[in-house]
Amino acid sequence: MEPIPRTALILGVAGLLPFVWGAATALSPGLAGWGGRFMGPLFIGTYVSLTYGTVILSFMSGVLWGFATRATGPEAAVGYILSVAPALWAFFMVNGTPGDAAVNLFAGFVGLLMLDWHFWKMGTAPDWWLRLRVGLTAVVLACLAVPIAL
Question: Cα–Cα distance between 98 and 134 in angstroms, integer?
Fold first, then answer.
């Protein structure tokens, strides 16, 4: 079993910081006040979680597109079609009330994990990919549970 490359792990964990920050500032008025004073209202609470989550789903579409390029024939065509799903989901579904948008974003990340599994199973994603994605997705879903619960 191939280990997760150190750089991929570090960048993946670093990419969780806006989700963790959003959940923390949604739960702590004091932290939200401090963050709002220094960074502004766009970088605290549910707003940062939803905005950043939308960006990440779109980014992950590009990653999946890259995996699709490793396939051939009908498998490649299906891969390309599936790869755009996270970005389209984010564009069309992450809207409405913050709670509804968070539910849809949560569902988008669950769907993304299924797509990660698909590309990993096809052999177009690296051997270590699913191990990385399961851990990262678990943290993202826990953080998105905060605006859903609020």
Answer: 25
Please provide the distance, in angstroms rounded to a whole number, between the alpha carbons at the two ends of the chain: 41
* 3 state SS of 82: helix
pTM, rounded to two decimals: 0.95
Going by pLDDT thresholds of 50, 70 and 90, the confidence category of residue 150 is confident
Nearest to 49 by CA among 11, 104, 86: 104
Given a cut of 90, whether residue 108 has pLDDT beyond it is yes
Q: What is the DSSP string of 27-56?
A: H-HHHHHHHHHHH-GGGSHHHHHHHHHHHH
Q: How many CB atoms lie within 10 A of CB 91?
A: 12
